Amino acid sequence: MTTVDHDLLADYVGGALEGTPDEARVAELIAADPAWQAAADELRGALALVSADLAVLSATPEPMPADVAARFDALLASSEFAPVPAAAPRAGVGERTLDRSDRPSRPGAARRPRRRWVMPTAVAAGVLALAGIVLPLGPLGMSAQEAGTMADAPAAAPAAAGPVPAYASGSDYLRESMREGMRAAASAKSSPDAELFSTPTDSASPGDVAALSYDLHRAPAGLARLTASPDALARCLDAVRTAVPGTVTSVDFARFEGRPAVVMMVDTASGRLWFVAGPGCGVNGPDELFRAPRD
To answer: Which of 68, 130, 140, 232 falls between 20 and 30 A from 191, CA-CA?
Structure first.
């Protein structure tokens, strides 16, 4: 009889392991091990009860409280949400204002649509304020004229990330032996199997992205979305840097306690960390499984 991994079992019951080697392994454990079978039956029963409760709740609409609705109406009717007329640019002394419409366009170059962020962001901030939530939404602290200028400007390209060693060690990392895994990662990083890649930026051409490659024959099948697409991996790294501001110094497509995982080393201002992300990294956040200091 083996110890039941409830996280892995929940992934199996929820369908997250479909098409992965872990799916067959968990199915065998449920069929052969009474503890796994009992835990699976209990989890399926609990899910059925939760689904029934949610169905009852969804059948009874809950109206917005009148005082909250009134505050929304007052907020949306305030001058802060009034349209801001765009100010015409004024030429300074000795300056000439160029009409860009007369300039010949480059062949194949399409104009980027201007992004309008001010109103949606302000509405979101109003909703959060009513709920008592305060977030550091920088542009909302500017004047209306400054906010309008930022909304009309093309979105700035994100800062390009430096080269990150990516490899597939095939290791199964454990919480208690991560320091040994760090030595293995340092060895793999200097091996011929490790390839350097840079996360794509706005200036990267499709050819540049297609050229990014690394040795993946030991990567778990559950990480195919991240290993097959540099864009997907770039979104994953962005999500990790949002959760843990710092520099990702290495990426290993491996396993963490038997589950497909992306094991990363991150250097932050406060120290060096292990950061382990699941197969959903970059879809809705970093899909964090584990983090711990490396020092």
So the answer is: 232
